[in-house]
């Protein structure tokens, strides 16, 4: 029993570009989302039918989360936030299939997402106040707080990524331990809790904290 | 100077890291208290203003997650201690 990514094969030669199982499941997730998005949005009409209702429900749900915290900019941030929501949600749900490792149980995935959010936060702050104005805002209210503010800003992506990673891996370890003790029937409610509930809540939380960071940088 | 064989040293390191991993999870107390406090406050807020249920739950979740970070850090440290050594 060893959590975390397992190396499946190397792309170049013997030890360059290792391909892990979490990376492969990540590709699978992307393909599933692509097919699902294509299917849900095909033959759209002004009067929505069954599958278009589902797509509109998801879009409006995410837009309803962004709009209160970033007034009048819900549609501008929707593609970015919705990508995070949907990718993390599907990544957590795909671990319900036995034998597939969740891509979010790999620190590389979560840190990549968190660093993307970090870059967007910096860009939005500079867009709001100008480059020099944004840098100067770290030295407020007094110049002595500059190191603390910079460290606080750099700690954001770390805590952001470790939160998702820790939740997913912790749930995975508990499920594995229960499987060793009782392989049948008893782990089912645990899968429901850690797979469905915690997985979807964590996807929501990751996106909402991204929104909160952006709105803090802009205010 | 006392010299240990590699097997003995390995066993001591493994034992120490398991004990340390168990000790690290004491950090779960703090987030538990904090998140419970936030949930209790949110419950009384919903009792006072039932129509503001949605925003209250959103704010509660956000605060709980931030206060839960320390627990997650201890969990990650425990995982590293068990599987990293």
UniProtKB/TrEMBL annotation, chain A:
Alphabetical list of NCBIfam families matching this protein: ATP_synt_6_or_A (TIGR01131)
CDD domains: ATP-synt_Fo_a_6
Keyword Ion transport: yes
Keyword terms of this UniProt record: ATP synthesis, Cell membrane, CF(0), Hydrogen ion transport, Ion transport, Membrane, Transmembrane, Transmembrane helix, Transport
Membrane-crossing segments per the record: 24-41, 77-101, 131-152, 164-186, 192-216
Protein name (Swiss-Prot/TrEMBL): ATP synthase subunit a
Keyword Protease (UniProt): no
TrEMBL record, chain B:
Pfam families: ATP-synt_C
Protein's GO biological process: proton motive force-driven ATP synthesis
GO annotation, cellular component aspect: proton-transporting ATP synthase complex; proton-transporting two-sector ATPase complex, proton-transporting domain
Domain V-ATPase proteolipid subunit C-like: start-end pairs: 19-81
Regions that span the bilayer: 16-40, 61-83
Localization: Membrane
Chief place where the protein resides: membrane
Gene Ontology molecular function, alphabetical: lipid binding; proton transmembrane transporter activity
Glycoprotein among keywords: no
Domain of life of the organism encoding this protein: Bacteria
Family as reported in the entry's similarity comment: Belongs to the ATPase C chain family.
Protein name in UniProt: ATP synthase F(0) sector subunit c
Classification of source organism: Bacteria, Bacillati, Bacillota, Clostridia, Halanaerobiales
